[in-house]
Design a protein that fits this description.
Blueprint: E1 2-6, H1 12-21, E2 26-30, H2 36-42, E3 46-49, E4 75-78, H3 80-88, E5 92-108, E6 124-137, E7 143-148, E8 155-158, E9 163-166, H4 178-189, H5 198-213, E10 218-221, H6 226-239, E11 243-249, H7 257-268, E12 272-277, H8 279-286, H9 292-314, E13 319-321, H10 326-329, E14 331-334, E15 340-343, H11 352-355, E16 359-361, H12 369-378, H13 383-386, H14 407-426, E17 435-449, E18 452-465, E19 473-474, H15 479-492, E20 496-501
Parallel strand pairs: 1-2, 1-3, 3-4, 4-9, 10-11, 10-13, 11-12, 13-16, 18-20
Antiparallel strand pairs: 5-6, 5-7, 7-8, 8-9, 14-15, 17-18, 18-19
Helix pairs in contact: 5-6, 5-12, 6-12, 8-9, 14-15
The structure holds xanthosine-5'-monophosphate.
The site of xanthosine-5'-monophosphate has 10 residues, from loops.
Pfam family, one: GATase
Subunit structure: Homodimer.
Pathway: Purine metabolism; GMP biosynthesis; GMP from XMP (L-Gln route): step 1/1
């Protein structure tokens, strides 16, 4: 396995992903938590030093522990990682007036194990650069293997020690052969076999769950989303009857979703499932509120209360299972007034474990979202669950903005939403789109249907592409598709007489309308 030492780059997680995609397990640890003891215990087959926002030329900028270079394992430095490696091994880093941000080209001057079968001497290759500083003098034992206009030492190597360092970012997709360079490093240089698969992970995870839980009882909140579905099925496979799932039905789910959850997990997987229909309570908790934050708080609080009530009824649970993912737990390095470590944590049912004296079981802590989907497939979950679009906890309650919510409006929205999603599926677009949904607008407009005047709701359709939900672009449907959906919604949804399409990207918009 590979250890990635994080110096705070925005794209450190991508290094871990690329390494795992090549079948090698990897973990990210922030530079200031990597002790000699951790290095010994983790016993990495190779180490990668990430990029980062600091400058090696600053007085107190971060360094890799000296032991990294003394363990006899291959080391790859990327961007800041290259610079600190050079500085620590006797080279020099300078602040350059030729900065490079974005696409750049490197000339390959020499063969190097990183380039085997990928780049040839004499060619010019596209890479992604993002640096102000650059190496000015090589550390002893290194030679230059690639250069760019702004970085005479774009790639350097000490083949004897198996130390490599690059100024560009091989982990981002804008370095087209970057993933292969990383694979050369982990497979050819470090000798990893590439046999880390989801099937192997599943077996490890089952073992770990059985060890942690023993013969204790586990409660798991199930929403029907990808993460909680995978947690539930994995735990069930590990501990069977010791697991009880609680599905708090807010009444804000999409059409048919509650029934699907119950039939999939109770009937199909034979999981003990408590289905609490709390739709009246949730509608009551929001009342006439239209402020999105007020609605969110009311829903969040009631969710915890109802969950706790059901968990108490199940009784005697020692553990609470949660679908926390790797991006939620990686300790991220931040540089606000000097190096510090902040941890973002997930609070699906915040505070409950302490209140009820339960321990957490978080079997997805080491996985990225797409790996969770792979694990779901490995566990036999159907695509309709595994590939499901993200859905916010407060559900349809934040898709009826600017107006009091009631059952009638929820039903109208549900119908419009299901027609829209059905058409998207029929057009084969569901998996290309990150998220698509309808929004019921707080405005009634005049229309004419048959010979009669109508005065009904307008609805907006939203569809976005995204890789992580942090930024998004609206999906460019063709107009025939939009016409077909609009026609069907107006004809089949009593209560809607006008349809619009939202062409806002994020930023400046958010994905949800709230
Ligand atoms: P925004 O609207 O902020 O949403 O652009 C980004 C992504 O997050 C989802 N979202 C939520 N997911 N609980 C969730 O689990 C929530 O409360 C929540 N609110 C927004 C949203 O659907 C989009 O995918």
């Amino acid at each position: 396995r590979i250890l990635i030492i994080d110096f705070g780059s925005q794209v450190t997680q991508l290094i871990a992903r690329r390494v795992r995609e090549s079948g090698v397990y990897s973990e990210i640890h922030p530079f200031n938590s990597v002790t000699d003891q951790l290095l010994e215990e983790y016993a990495p087959k190779a180490i990668i030093l990430s990029g980062g926002p600091a400058s090696v030329t600053w007085e107190e900028s971060p360094r890799a522990p000296a032991k990294v270079f003394e363990m006899g394992v291959p080391v790859l430095g990327i961007c800041y990682g290259q610079q600190t490696m050079m500085e620590q091994l006797g080279g020099k880093v300078e602040t350059s007036d030729h900065r490079e941000f974005g696409r750049a080209y490197v000339e390959i001057n020499k063969n190097c194990a990183l380039f085997d079968g990928v780049w040839e001497v004499g060619t010019s290759e596209q890479v992604w650069m993002s640096h102000g500083d650059r190496v000015g003098k090589l550390a002893p034992g290194f030679e230059v293997v690639a250069t760019s206009e702004g970085a005479p030492y774009a790639a350097v190597a000490n083949e004897e020690k198996k130390f490599y360092a690059v100024q560009f970012h091989p982990e981002v997709v804008h370095t087209p052969h970057g993933a292969q360079l990383l694979k050369n490093f982990t497979h050819n240089v470090a000798g990893c076999s590439g046999d880390w698969t989801m099937a192997a992970f599943k077996e490890q995870a089952l073992d770990a769950i059985r060890k942690q839980v023993g013969d204790g009882k586990v409660i798991c909140g199930l929403s029907g989303g990808v993460d909680s579905s995978v947690v539930a099925v994995l735990l069930h496979e590990a501990i069977g009857e010791q697991l009880t799932c609680v599905f708090v039905d807010t009444g804000f789910m999409r059409a048919g979703e509650s029934e699907q959850v119950v039939s999939m997990f109770r009937d199909n997987y034979n999981i003990q499932l408590v289905h609490r229909d709390a739709s009246d309570d949730f509608l009551g908790a929001i009342g006439d509120s239209i402020d999105p934050e007020v609605k969110r708080k009311a829903i969040g609080k009631l969710f915890i209360d109802v969950f706790e009530e059901e968990a108490k009824k199940v009784g005697g649970a020692d553990f609470l299972a949660q679908g926390t993912l790797y991006p939620d737990v990686i300790e991220s390095v931040s540089f606000t007034g000097g190096p510090s470590v902040t941890i973002k944590s997930h609070h699906n049912v915040g505070g409950l474990p302490e209140r009820m004296n339960m321990q957490l079981v978080e079997p997805l802590r080491e996985l990225f979202k797409d790996e969770v989907r792979d694990l779901g497939r490995e566990l036999g979950l159907p695509d309709s669950f595994v590939d499901r679009h993200p859905f916010p906890g407060p559900g349809l309650a934040i898709r009826i903005p600017g107006q009091p919510i009631n059952r009638e409006k929820l039903d109208i929205l549900r119908k419009a939403d299901s027609i829209y999603l059905e058409e998207i599926r029929n057009a084969g677009l569901y998996n290309t789109i990150w998220q698509a949904f309808a929004v019921l607008l707080p405005v009634k407009t005049v229309g004419v249907m048959g010979d009669a005047r109508t005065h009904d709701y307008a609805c907006a359709l939203r569809a976005v592409t995204s890789t992580d939900g942090m930024t998004a672009d609206y999906y460019h449907f063709d107009h025939d598709f939009l016409s077909r959906v609009a026609n069907r919604i107006i004809n089949e949804c009593r209560g809607i007489n006008r349809v619009t399409y939202d062409i806002t990207s994020k930023p400046p918009g958010t994905i949800e309308w709230e």
